Amino acid sequence: MPEKLSSVYKKFSDTTTIKNGFINLGCLLQGNSEEGLLNFCQSREIQQSDDQSLGGIIESILKHYQPKFNLLGYDLIKDKKFSDNVKRFDFISKTELMNVFADYCADININVFQTPEDNEYCVDLYLTKKDTSLKTETVFVLTGYEIEKKYKEIFLDIGRAGEISDWIIFVTTAAGVLKIGYDRLVADMQRVNAWLYVVDPHQKRIFGITKGGKSKTKNENLQNEYIRSLPPQPIRALSQVVKISKYAFSERDSYKPKKMSQFYVPSDIHCETNLNSSIQEKSPEIFRSLLIITKESGLSLFSFNNPTFELDEIIVSGFISAMDSFVGELSGSGDGGSSLKEIDYKNFKINGAIGEKVKIVVITSESVDEIFRERLDFYLNKIETDFQQEIDAFIKTGNLGSIDTKIFKELAQEILLI
């Protein structure tokens, strides 16, 4: 079977004029069952060959769409059974994406600084390089999960960032490109004179898409004032001895926007299932308990414990409710997933996120990192979005009803890796 698939992909890849793209069609196709693929063929009136193996079905699909493989990609993602696989091409945590790009910058002799949380330019990273003179770059970063909601807002910030740097960079993921549209994204970045980079976490690649020009609005005084607000030490210093990035970058394949495609046919099989390799590896070891409770009454909706750690969820639920009222240390208004500040309690660390209807509390034996906290916010938002009606019914009646809480555990294990 692998040999059949490899030959099928190579056959069609060899016929395409555009070899590079962001979303691997093989990953979307192989991520579904043979029955799902046959249903897709039936809905699109795709003629099938006598070969009903996975390789045979995929060959029939590619043959039907050849050479319009972008159209195949867009047709596939209209079906949730296929579109779920797009998550392979994204990061849940923005910090993960920033770390990948920071590593790449360090390898090309650029210092990377974390920006202040309250900076008026809303910049995510600030880059500096000193040769004959100081060169500076402002970096804006959005994952695919964020981009639909925040793109318009950040696009306005990009226009202002030229006041404090020589160049402007926008970084997103392959899934982020899909959300905005490749042609629109390229046109937008060219209009604001920004560099565009796309990170593909599925195959660990970084693509340079557009080259930005030097800022015509830079103000030396504003730049110097901004630089003084940065931390004294970079989060990534330029690499002196060894490369630290695990992602490949090809100068030859970059900065040629007309030579890139949203979807592409791979030349071989490559469809890994590990979507979260960059999260803190010790999460499973330090995890003790996760609890989902209603925001107002503190009723327990779901709990999930480390088998080696016994937890009385009623006691913890009451403690968290009292803590919220007494300490009042929420980091935000509580809308849309705001993280609780980490709290020490009886030699354990308590982290949480609070949404519109529920709170999620995670107890660990050690402190968690920013990536874990961002993933916790994502987990909360997904629970409240996907199970809104069931949560409302539980709040009114106290009855779990049709909620299958197993999915809460499965999502926690997938997103938080606990």
Write up this protein.
The protein is of the alpha/beta class and about 425 residues long. The protein folds into three domains: about 1-90, no CATH class; about 95-265, af2093 domain (Rossmann fold, 3-Layer(aba) Sandwich); about 285-415, Beta-Lactamase, CATH 3.30.450. The protein is about 40% helix and about 20% strand. The protein contains 16 helices and 15 strands. It has a seven-stranded mixed sheet with strand order 2-3-4-5-6-7-8. Helix 1 packs parallel to helix 4 (about 55-65), helix 8 crosses helix 9 (about 175-180) and helix 14 (about 370-385) runs antiparallel to helix 16 (about 405-415). The longest helix has 17 residues, at about 145-160.
Give the topology.
Layout: H1 2-13, E1 20-24, H2 25-30, H3 34-43, H4 54-65, H5 69-77, H6 80-83, H7 94-107, E2 111-114, E3 125-130, E4 134-141, H8 144-160, E5 167-173, H9 174-180, H10 182-191, E6 195-200, E7 205-210, H11 220-228, E8 248-249, E9 260-264, H12 283-286, E10 287-294, E11 300-305, H13 313-327, E12 338-339, E13 343-345, E14 348-354, E15 358-364, H14 370-386, H15 388-397, H16 406-416
Parallel strand pairs: 1-9, 4-5, 5-6, 7-8
Antiparallel strand pairs: 2-3, 3-4, 6-7, 10-11, 10-15, 12-14, 13-14, 14-15
Helix pairs in contact: 1-4, 3-4, 8-9, 14-16
